[in-house]
Amino acid sequence: MDTRNIRTRAATGANALVQLIESNIADGSWTAGFKLPPERDLEKQFGVSRNTLRKSLKLLQDKGRIVRHVGRGSFVAPARQDLPQSRALDSFVPVSADSLVLRIHGASPAEIMEVRLVVEPAAIELAALRANAGDVRRIRDCLTQSEQAGEIADFEHWDGQLHVAIVAASKNSLLMDLYATMNETRNQPEWLRLKHRSLTPERRRIYQEQHRRIVDALADRDAVTARNELRDHLLLVRSNLLGPVNS
Amino acid sequence: MDTRNIRTRAATGANALVQLIESNIADGSWTAGFKLPPERDLEKQFGVSRNTLRKSLKLLQDKGRIVRHVGRGSFVAPARQDLPQSRALDSFVPVSADSLVLRIHGASPAEIMEVRLVVEPAAIELAALRANAGDVRRIRDCLTQSEQAGEIADFEHWDGQLHVAIVAASKNSLLMDLYATMNETRNQPEWLRLKHRSLTPERRRIYQEQHRRIVDALADRDAVTARNELRDHLLLVRSNLLGPVNS
DNA sequence: CACTCCTGAACCATTACTAAACCATTAGGA
DNA sequence: TCCTAATGGTTTAGTAATGGTTCAGGAGTG
């Protein structure tokens, strides 16, 4: 360990490790499919505890840079350019004439946030055109509940419901199904951990302000403002969850 | 700690053996028809257990590299021009096991077109950033096929494939899965009738021109133009399918 | 003090590999 | 034809590697 580096929090720790490991991947010394050394080796190699190392690996996993498997090891994920192309074609299974089943395999939080950024701004534009008084009331109700929530878990529940209610107000059942499915993912343990780690009281306050501006614009039928506010909100959420995005 | 000499599982074992044996075949030291040594010899030669060796042989068999017969032995398979290897066998990167299930119930053509108008323009923007040469080639191939198609059914098939290929080039597997599932809906009877009724030769000619402009913009990495052209195309398709839209 | 981040350690669950025995089919010679 | 060895196929128990989880405690910060 380099003794020149005074180990302040900003210089060491999870975030610094993420950048270090990411640079290994970026410069090609760790190519797709490369098996990372076991955590118990990396721990010594980087001079940090296993807990800290694992936090960094978790961040890399969330960003879709690596995949990890119990008993197998951690591997550098295929680069975006190498992503399998053909899987989509055989991933659907028709179960009846009017219903299809889609299995979504291991969508990373990064991918999910990207899709949310596609779907939600579009949905709120439609919602601004089509929402009725009941829809607006339901949305405002979610907003109020989230603001009155004490527990973080409560806030997150009503936060999720708010976004669902907005998409539902688009009156497009297909869009709603897509979004609701994605939303399921956010209730999985992995995603919950990610949220809990990133949700500081200060951020929660900002989110609530954004929510209010979004809902107000929607109630005013101001599609353009609603879209922009929602987009900004999602960009901030993504940045808080996954760090700065560079694609 | 010297990690070079630590025989990690990925470095030895089944996967490494596959590559080792495959190189023997590739460099011509084992030609087609060559009888491999018995498993009980190879086991010692490679220093692994028979179970592990057999796992590797199974992978090679699945890839069509060797054939095996009880009581006779294992033989190098005749070389084949096409290698229809399943990607799962080709890639040693384990994919995450968790999966979500999406059910789509009887989405109407109007809803589907609306979602396409949301998803595809966004996808082509991402694709303009991320598509590699192979993606562009695949997309151009669909375009060519659709232009050379005689039958209406052929044209529609390659039309569909073209749009799937564009979304696939966005490298977001979640977006890809969502879109491919939706696309499957378009093969249902109601949708087919709608398409056949609306697709006149004149319209087909216009679609092809639009397709070409879209693909050219994508190949030029011109995200804005690609997005706008694709949007115009989808608006025209929707209008032709469903009549003037007044939402 | 309260809070956050890190360390160190123990233990759990899943996976890969080893080792050994036994089964089923085939080839080849008595 | 019949017997035997060779060979791939199968099963099972055990060991080790590896990521996942939890907890107690220390160190710096506001």
Keywords:
homodimer; 247 residues; mainly alpha; Arc Repressor Mutant, subunit A; Four Helix Bundle (Hemerythrin (Met), subunit A); 2 domains; two-stranded antiparallel ribbon; 10 helices; 62% helix; elongated; disordered N terminus; DNA-binding
Number of separate strands of chain A: 4
Number of domains of chain A: 2
CATH architecture of the largest domain in chain A: Up-down Bundle
How much helical structure, as a percent, in the residues of chain A? 55-70%
CA(first)-CA(last) distance of chain A: 33 Å
- The CATH homologous superfamily of the largest domain in chain A is called GntR ligand-binding domain-like
Low-confidence stretches of chain A: 1-11, 81-105
The interface involving the most residues is between: A-B, 63 and 58 residues
CATH topology of the largest domain in chain A: Four Helix Bundle (Hemerythrin (Met), subunit A)
Rounded to an integer, what's the Rg of chain A over CA atoms?
A: 21 Å
Strand-residue fraction of chain A?
5-15%
